[in-house]
Amino acid sequence: MKLRYRQVHLDFHTSGDIEGVGKDFDPDRFGDTLAAAGVDSINLFARCHHGYLYYPSKAFPERIHPHLARPSLLPDQIAACHDRGIRAPIYVTVQWDQFTRDAHRDWMLIDEEGRGTGRGPLEAGFYDRLDVSHPGYVSFLKEHVRELFELMPVDGLWFDIVVPVFSFDARWLKAMLKEGKDPRNPADQMAYARRVIDAFKLDMARFIRGLPQHTPDCTIYFNAGHVGPRHRSSTEAYTHYEVESLASGGWGYMHFPVAQRSGRELGKPVLGMTGKFHGSWGDFHGYKNEAAMEYEVFQMLALNGACSIGDQLHPHGELDPTTYKLIGHVFHAIEAKEPWCRGAEAVTDVAVMNPEAYATAEGLWQDETHGRTDFGVVKMLTELGTQFDLITSEKDLSGYRLVVVPDEVPVDAAFGEKLKSFVEAGGAVIASHESGLLPDGSGFAEPIASAVERVGPAEFEPDFIHPGPELLDGLDATRYVMQQRALQVRTRPGTEVLAAVERPFFNRAWQHFCSHRYTPTSFQKVYPGVTEKRIGGGRVIYFAHPVFRSYHEQAPRWIKRLVRNAMRRVLPDPIVEHDGPSSLQVSLNRQPEQGRRVLHLLHYIPERRGQAFDVIEDAIPLHGLKLTVRGSAGVASVKRVPGGEPIGFDLDGETLTFTVPKLVGHAMIEIA
Question: pTM of the predicted model, to two decimals?
Answer without folding.
Answer: 0.96
